[in-house]
Amino acid sequence: MVFSDLLTIWRNTGLEFSEIILAQEMMETGRDPVAVKRSLKYLMDVMLEEAQKNFGKPFKTLTGLTGNNAAKLCASKPRVLSEFNWVATVTALSMAESNAAMGRIVACPTAGSCGVMPAMLYALRNVKEADNEGLLKAFIVASGVGNVVAKKATLSGAAGGCQAEIGTATAMAAALMTYYFSHNPETVGHASALALKSLMGLVCDPVGGFVEVPCVKRNAIAVNVAIACAEMALAGIESVIPFDEVVEAMYHVGRSLPESLKETGLGGIAATRTAQKLVESIHKTLNSGSET
Ligand code: SF4
């Protein structure tokens, strides 16, 4: 089912949109909506727990390419970022670095993009004092947005570039914030479309194939894109292109990308001279470690 079908059901029934998404999941998979809601609540709680535990912490990652970014931003007083954006940015860095250090994360929609949704959830709860029930409904709506992309396109960087991974996470986070404040699925569609369009064409180019550079910082940028897109949609700004068509366009762009820009580590910033030198030195260090 595409997003416009979900909107049609909502317009015809006026049911709570998160319930429509759960009912749709039951139609497609046969899963009990109560059980699906329970597992989504569990995932949301894990994200919030890990965000709380990891906020601004330093990490030791396999390559050492990342691990100190969240701690640095946490120790630095923001000059222009609002408290909300700053908390979201620190959280996104923390979760993405925790992933690089083999910490517990929820792949949402993938491990590489695991920082974006917790960042939005944590900032809403801690800065805006969002209530759990409202957050859960918004989280279910965001998962419905992710499901549309999964069914109609791809969530994989190897198949569609980073636009499919972090782009989808950004659309989901924009949906989450928008639904929390508006309860309006049409506004959610605009926010998600604005977000996915903003990251259209983003290539997957991890240095050495490690999910660290540019992945960690991209999570942080992405949550700020999501916040801006949600604010625009909440202000009544509409996406000229509907969400479903943006998803289709993203899929076609992903198919058109060369293999070097789809998680092979051969293109984009992974192909720069500095990246290649770093990878050589990381491999030397890792090999010497395994020989001792
Ligand atoms: S660059 Fe590739 S590996 Fe890194 S987050 Fe994006 S899609 Fe995932």
Structure overview:
The protein has a single domain (3-291), classed as 2-methylcitrate dehydratase PrpD (Orthogonal Bundle). The radius of gyration is 19 Å and the shape is globular. It has 292 residues and is mainly alpha-helical. The chain is built from 13 helices and no strands. The termini are far apart. Helix 6 (116-127) crosses helix 11 (215-234). The protein has helices spanning 3-13, 17-29, 33-54, 69-75, 83-100, 116-127, 132-152, 157-160, 162-182, 185-198, 215-234, 243-256, 273-291. It is 67% helix and 0% strand. Residues 112-113, 157, 162, 165-166, 204-206, 211, 214-215, 218, 263 line the site of iron/sulfur cluster (SF4). Belongs to the iron-sulfur dependent L-serine dehydratase family. Pathway: Carbohydrate biosynthesis; gluconeogenesis. Residues 13-270 form the Serine dehydratase-like alpha subunit domain.
Task: Give the topology.
Layout: H1 3-13, H2 17-29, H3 33-54, H4 69-75, H5 83-100, H6 116-127, H7 132-152, H8 157-160, H9 162-182, H10 185-198, H11 215-234, H12 243-256, H13 273-291
Helix pairs in contact: 1-2, 2-3, 2-7, 3-5, 3-6, 4-5, 5-6, 5-11, 6-9, 6-11, 7-9, 9-10, 9-11, 10-11, 10-12
Bound molecules: iron/sulfur cluster.
Keywords:
292 residues; mainly alpha; 2-methylcitrate dehydratase PrpD; 67% helix; globular
Can you give me a brief rundown of this structure?
With 292 residues, the chain is mostly helical. It has helices at residues 3-13, 17-29, 33-54, 69-75, 83-100, 116-127, 132-152, 157-160, 162-182, 185-198, 215-234, 243-256, 273-291.
